[in-house]
């Protein structure tokens, strides 16, 4: 007997079935909820979900997935909705599974330095918990105050500390997931060493909810860094940014090495919230963070800075003398995304190996400037790990639809350059819908075929976030 189709299930019947699982008050179909929970930070695809459902337990998520399989319903996971690839957008009548109520922190183990978190735990919530217990959760980014761990894990979020502490996947000790088949899997059981075959945990980290939904994660913590100090340097030539990076890394352990253009900084300064770091204006800036545990650490940083000045790589600089000044210097970099949002930026999140960054960036900048001289380009990113954010700002008076159409052509040129340098079309924001047409620039046909096979093994009925990452 053939299972009923999605069309055969009325809206009222759908609501009743979902309410029977999570309760009447945990299903929403009002216009505001459909709009807010059906989208992420992208503005390309209008949200059109059928309903929003708020489970509170892994077992409720399992029942929702089994219901979806029975009635061929499509499910989209929703966390903090801060994604930039439309991976959490419900644009085709899907049911949005929002994890806001699965936000408990439990089972803290000081010896193992681990803590169990629901998928809805906000990044900053975990950071604060770690700090309250004398420890540190190092994965950090501008959206830490609203992004959720389930989304971070599903996109393998990176951020501003990758050069020292790595990506989200480096901090996941164990996972509880509900697969597309409706099975509950406990992956890795929080072990440090577990050489018993495939580490399926890693498939769900970065899987964008296409294989199943993360409901709970055991996260690792580490010691708190001491006296984090920030140095902002004015660098006139792009090639010199990498020379400065090499010089500092040769003599010091850095916790961050960020990059932004003068155009990016001027947008932030125009708001009047933070002061300029120094009077000198240069085309590029590097923000360096390190632990100044002793006077010798500070002396070493100043010695390297002076060496860079003598070489002509750096023309000016400032070093933080307090936590407040360090926070303000960080705002020069961290406030860029929010500041430029009013220009409806078209974003590309790309990466190459660190040594190839200067020619890679120049090639892209040359193509975009030549083809669209009226488009303002804003560069910034985690240059210390080869991750660059290309932002093209929409000119005033140009319709959003026409702008995105033009930028789609830009993306093709950009990703051809990414392929030339053997880079990635998505360094840390996932593929979702916006990068899906360009996946072949990073992944081979054979790789994509294996990825589809993995998808079908975990989600044979294609109910888990269909249309994202790849088509099956």
Automatic annotation (TrEMBL):
Cofactor: FAD
Alphabetized Pfam families for the sequence: FAD-oxidase_C, FAD_binding_4
Location of the FAD-binding PCMH-type domain: 45-224
SUPFAM superfamilies: FAD-binding/transporter-associated domain-like (SSF56176), FAD-linked oxidases, C-terminal domain (SSF55103)
Keyword S-adenosyl-L-methionine applies: no
Entry keywords, A to Z: FAD, Flavoprotein, Oxidoreductase
InterPro entries: FAD-bd_oxidored_4_C, FAD-bd_PCMH, FAD-bd_PCMH-like_sf, FAD-bd_PCMH_sub1, FAD-bd_PCMH_sub2, FAD-linked_Oxase-like_C, FAD-oxidored/transferase_4, Oxid_FAD_bind_N
Gene3D superfamilies reported for this sequence: 3.30.465.10, 3.30.70.2190, 3.30.70.2740, Uridine Diphospho-n-acetylenolpyruvylglucosamine Reductase, domain 2 (3.30.43.10), Vanillyl-alcohol Oxidase, Chain A, domain 4 (1.10.45.10)
Repressor listed as a keyword: no
Organism domain of life: Bacteria
Homology family: Belongs to the FAD-binding oxidoreductase/transferase type 4 family.
Protein name stated in the entry: FAD-binding oxidoreductase
Organism: Bacterioplanoides pacificum
Lineage of the organism: Bacteria, Pseudomonadati, Pseudomonadota, Gammaproteobacteria, Oceanospirillales
């Amino acid at each position: 007997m053939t299972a009923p189709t999605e069309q055969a299930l009325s809206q009222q019947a759908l609501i009743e079935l979902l309410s029977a699982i999570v309760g009447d008050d945990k299903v929403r179909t009002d216009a505001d909820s459909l709009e807010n929970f059906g989208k992420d930070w992208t503005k390309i695809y209008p949200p059109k979900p059928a309903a929003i459902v708020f489970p509170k337990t892994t077992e409720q998520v399992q029942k929702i997935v089994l219901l979806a399989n029975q009635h061929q319903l499509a499910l989209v996971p929703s966390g903090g909705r801060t994604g930039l690839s439309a991976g959490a957008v419900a644009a085709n009548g899907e049911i949005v599974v929002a994890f806001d109520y699965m936000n408990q922190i439990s089972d803290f183990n000081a010896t193992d330095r681990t803590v169990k978190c629901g998928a809805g735990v906000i990044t900053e919530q975990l950071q604060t918990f770690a700090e309250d217990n004398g420890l540190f959760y190092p994965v950090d980014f501008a959206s830490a105050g609203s992004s959720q761990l389930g989304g971070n894990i599903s996109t393998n979020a990176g951020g501003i500390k990758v050069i020292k502490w790595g990506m989200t996947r480096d901090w996941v000790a164990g996972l509880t997931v509900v697969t597309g088949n409706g099975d509950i899997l406990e992956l890795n059981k929080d072990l440090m060493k577990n050489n018993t075959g495939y580490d399926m945990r890693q498939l769900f980290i970065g899987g964008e909810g296409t294989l199943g939904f993360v409901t709970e994660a055991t996260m690792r913590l580490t010691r708190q860094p001491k006296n984090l100090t920030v140095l902002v340097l004015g660098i006139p030539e792009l090639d010199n940014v990498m020379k400065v990076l090499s010089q500092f890394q040769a003599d010091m352990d850095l916790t961050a090495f960020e990059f932004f253009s003068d155009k990016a900084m001027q947008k932030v300064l125009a708001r009047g919230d933070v002061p300029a770091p120094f009077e000198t204006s240069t085309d590029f800036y590097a923000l360096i963070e390190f632990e100044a545990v002793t006077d010798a650490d500070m002396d070493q940083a100043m010695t390297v800075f002076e060496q860079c000045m003598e070489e002509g790589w750096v023309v000016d600089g400032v070093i933080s003398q307090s936590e407040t000044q360090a926070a303000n210097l960080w705002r020069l970099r961290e406030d860029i995304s929010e500041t430029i949002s009013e220009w409806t930026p078209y974003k590309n999140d790309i990466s190459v190996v660190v040594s190839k960054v200067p020619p890679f960036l120049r090639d892209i900048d040359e193509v975009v400037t030549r083809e669209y001289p009226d488009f303002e380009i804003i560069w910034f990113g985690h240059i210390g790990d080869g991750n660059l954010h290309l932002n093209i700002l929409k000119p005033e008076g140009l319709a959003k639809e026409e702008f995105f159409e033009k930028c789609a052509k830009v993306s093709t040129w950009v990703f051809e350059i990414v392929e030339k340098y053997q880079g990635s079309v998505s360094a840390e924001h996932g593929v979702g819908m916006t990068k899906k047409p360009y996946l072949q620039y990073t992944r081979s046909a054979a790789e994509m075929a294996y990825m589809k096979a993995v998808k079908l093994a975990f989600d044979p009925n294609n109910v888990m976030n269909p249309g994202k990452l790849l088509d099956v």
